[in-house]
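Assess this:
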Amino acid sequence: LSLPDLLTLLHPKSQDGRLIQRQLDPLLIELKLAQKDAWQAGIGWRERERYQLSEIGLRFLAIRHGLMPAYYLIPEKKVRDEKKRVSPRDPTVNWEQRGAALLGRQMGHTNALYQCVRGIIEVGMRSGPYRIISWKSARESVRSYYDPDERDWMNVCPDAELLYFRTDSTQIDSILVEYDRGTTFYREYAAKFEAYSHYQRYTRTTLPTILVVIQRASTAETIREAIREVEAGSVPVVLALETDLLKHGLTNVLLHS
């Protein structure tokens, strides 16, 4: 996460980065619960400077939530390559945050997604019709199902899940986010929405609305064609240009979809 990401999450009504810095310094320096890394491709120091929980911080989080350390931690790559079992308590092994390596390899997509979600949160705070109360990561948003044709467990993997409520209601709703930078191929759209369709069929449940954020209007027709081809018309999908979403806000886009 960047400083602006953290500021939006923890102090959505503020633009003062010093609020976050005052909170980060004890975590980084004294408690060593977090660590700072650099993303060299970022534009400006605020985008290049990234923060994540350290091994100590992740172990603390596991204890706090009553989870095994392995929920958050995996051994470093050289240990994984040896394919031998190691204890999460082995002090000779360096441990990494589960899933963080993939986010790092796709940092351009990750950064753009985070900026988009920040924008959704900020528009809700500024214009008032809705509030985002929880932003779940890609890993937290995964849904699993058993596919009898494949005889195996499968996953559907959105980029994020947002829990929100309309300010004129107390009902909490969920929306799954798929962020498209215009680099996805037709066959990838087809496979993704076929998996969503299979999830609904085999679990006999309806997914929350899937908000697909796109950069060009022409992408919408490509996605619709892919959905038709794999017969995924029952999957609740809303296609929205990112510019429209960040101008009009989440609930306005959903209302007029």
In short: Residues 107-127 form the longest helix (21 residues). The two ends are 31 Å apart (CA to CA). Residues 99 and 105 are 10 Å apart (CA to CA). The chain has a mean pLDDT of 92.
